[in-house]
Design goal:
Length: about 325
């Protein structure tokens, strides 16, 4: 049986099936991704497998929680031996699929992320509270699934998910093994290792191993684009001899695919950081408005106090204590 979609590729060899899961699970935030219909067909294709052993190669930064759980359950219900191989950076819904394996292996140069569920919505207070309750329920369900797979307590898992304000913590392969998400850590192939060396040498930077908010992503993207354009230019040149130079290393098609995957990851991180910056700017504007309002109130009350009036504009010495107390309270708030 051979099957291919945006999300998975299935191929069978003898009595063994291989499933490649690469990309966004379900419909993506930044791209079309895999819609409900395509993922439903994917799950049906997985369910139809008749093999003694199924190898699942995973490289996905996540996507739709419900689709991730659906694929997880289909794999768990299979009578075949399930071996999961985490080949690329894997997060969110991608991790739910990863823990469906009877054995889980992970390359030593990739990372693993679990975090609290998140979404975006416009609505009234009642709708938003209901959504928050749904997200809490999803977090608890995820924690139970992770706890079952790792042998850790739900409390430990929830604490890990809540790191960095609920954004979780990127785990190295060894850390993922210590937590119980992974059974075995292996060294990537020579091709994969050479890709890292070529990319690092060409960029003259260290590619991100975590969410580094101080990184200059514009510079990284520009340099990646230059490398990609150079590779494509060499490809179009056909058999014309190209004199290799240290500044322009020859890159294979597999290496180009890896670099393109890094570009996609950096683009997604950039979009996330842009949203965080916009949120902080909005909070700054709100704070400045409230600060200006407080300054105006202090000036108003100080003027009334100087004229022997209380905060309501009424005169009389008996109001002096109230004036002083009101001014002191506002000054304390202002400070």
């Amino acid at each position: 049986m051979n099957y291919k979609s945006k999300l998975i590729t299935i191929r069978t060899e003898a009595n063994e099936a291989i499933i490649d899961i690469d990309g966004t699970i379900g419909e993506g935030w930044f791209e079309e991704g895999n819609t409900i219909e395509t993922v439903r067909r994917d799950i049906e294709a997985v369910s139809a497998l008749k093999a003694d052993k199924i190898i699942v190669n995973v490289s996905s930064l996540g996507g739709d929680y419900y689709h991730g759980v659906g694929i997880h359950n289909v794999l768990k219900q299979s009578s075949a031996q399930i071996e999961v191989n985490i080949m690329g950076y894997t997060a969110s819904a991608g991790t739910l699929i990863s823990i469906a394996g009877d054995t889980v292996k992970m390359a030593d140069n990739v990372m693993f992320l679990v975090h609290q569920a998140w979404t975006g919505m416009l609505g009234n207070a009642t709708e938003l509270r209901a959504l928050a309750e749904e997200l809490d329920a999803i977090d608890l369900n995820q924690a139970r699934m992770y706890a079952t797979a790792t042998g850790r307590s739900e409390e430990e898992i929830l604490e890990l998910m809540s790191a960095d304000n609920g954004n979780g913590k990127w785990l190295t392969a060894e850390e993922a093994k210590e937590w119980g998400f992974v059974d075995e850590v292996y060294t990537a192939t020579k091709v994969a290792a050479s890709v890292d060396k070529v990319a690092a040498k060409a960029l003259k930077i260290e590619l991100p191993k975590n969410q580094n908010k101080e990184m200059d992503f514009k510079t990284i993207m520009a340099e990646l684009k230059d490398i990609k354009d150079n590779i494509l230019a060499k490809k179009d040149a056909g058999n014309e001899p190209v004199e290799p130079t240290p500044a322009e290393p020859t890159v294979s098609a597999e290496e180009l695919a890896t670099i393109n995957a890094e570009i996609t990851t950096l683009k997604e991180l950039t979009e996330g950081y842009k949203a965080q910056v916009e949120e902080l700017e909005a909070e700054k504007v709100d704070f400045e408005a409230k600060l200006s309002e407080l300054e105006s109130k202090v000036s108003e009350y100080e003027a009334k106090l100087a004229n022997g009036l209380d905060v309501n504009g009424e005169g009389g010495k008996e109001k002096a204590s109230a004036n002083i107390e009101a001014a002191n309270q506002l000054t304390t708030i202002f400070k």
